[in-house]
Amino acid sequence: MLDxxxxxxxxxxxxxxxxxTRGYEGLDVAELMLLESRRKEIQVRTxxxxxxxxxxxxxxxxxxxxxxxxxxxxxxxxxxxxxxxQCEHALGDVLAKIEAIAAGIPNLPHESVPLGSDETQNVExxxxxxxxxxxxxxxxxxxxxxxxxxxxxxxxxxxxGARFTVxxxxxxxxxxxxAQFMLDLHTDTHGYEETNVPLLxxxxxxxxxxxxxxxxxxxxxxxxxxxxxxxxxxHGNIVQRIKDWDLEYYLIPTSEVPLTNIVRDEIVxxxxxxxxxxxxxxxFRAEAGSAxxxxxxxxxxxxxxxxELVSIARPEESDAEHERMTRAAETVLEKLxxxxxxxxxCTGDMGFAARKTYDLEVWLPSQNTYREISSCSNCGDFQxxxxxxxxxxxxxxxxxxxxxxxxxxxxxxxxxxxxMENYQNADGSITVPEVLRPYMGGAEKIV
Length: 447
Prior knowledge:
Elements: H1 4-9, H2 11-22, H3 29-65, H4 71-103, E1 123-128, H5 141-146, E2 151-152, H6 153-159, E3 166-167, H7 169-189, E4 193-194, E5 200-201, H8 203-209, E6 221-232, E7 238-251, H9 256-261, E8 267-268, E9 275-284, E10 303-313, H10 318-336, E11 340-344, E12 356-364, E13 369-378, H11 382-387, E14 390-392, E15 399-401, E16 403-411, H12 412-422, E17 430-431, E18 445-446
Parallel strand pairs: 4-9, 8-14
Antiparallel strand pairs: 1-11, 2-3, 5-7, 6-7, 9-10, 10-16, 11-12, 12-13, 13-16, 14-15, 17-18
């Protein structure tokens, strides 16, 4: 959420900036100014009523001390109380409308982010590794996984539906090895604390990181029966049982949500910053609006696994922390020997909560192109303001908003795809990258 001072004092300038950088035209300046005028009006009247009530209350005390009649003044005070309640309700309505507007506004880009409308205007930073030249016809991960039935979409469709996968045998173990390798690298080398988080979170957590209210259609919701009513025919015979359902939880789209919300409504000690956390978790996404995209194989799934990196940092350190986090994700790909490129996203391609984002794109031989495998973002104080996540600045002694950062370190399923395709052999076997062999019982190849 943006600084409310911008909304109050510079709505027109903010709207113009959002349109230029984000292509966002949803800020109705006239409506916002009307609401702000109404808010000020109610707050002024509230203060007037409070002052009148205090003055009259003192008057009642003085009249009582003199033994005079106070009924008339008490009636006035009662009237003030009733109007104060009306003001309180009116102010609550106005503030709720302002907050609803603010909740739908994306973060403002960092000054170093290039202007652009879509991914074609992203800026490549560098490339690492040289894509392998094959002397045989390259297979994609689906063909490679069909060997021995290790990657089975048909059974997954029977169990769950489209965009799910069953992994078996050595391929399932390779998938697990990747996650273990990433966790060990980030904890032992990069100083992140391994954290195990819930896969189900409440609405406050989703609001805190910006998934709600804007992206509710992309989330899987968990409804639970709150109560049950019996409908009968008037003769004691049950016609139907009717349940009231209550929305209790959301399945996490990424462990960024629970990890970041750990500091929600907290004041973090300065000496704990930067607070670095990593988690390996299942992730769940409805993939609304992606019909027809990447339907083959494991590229775009409703359920997948990811090793996430989250940092909570002092504002003045967040830019450096962003570079450090991105470098940690790059190290994963370099140790796996996977060619990749680093891309700085333009303003029109960044996520809702981000102020600056680097994408890492891994080389997939079957597609002859680079595909996203990691996205590392600095969100500034955008999420922290929603969560009221703060730290106590030793220089001022006062609580101030932290900066939050998140990144994939990296997506496990896409790493598996990249390893399968880049390390494939002519006979369909897959060479195991050297760093993964200790996690594979020393196996050099899966056949």
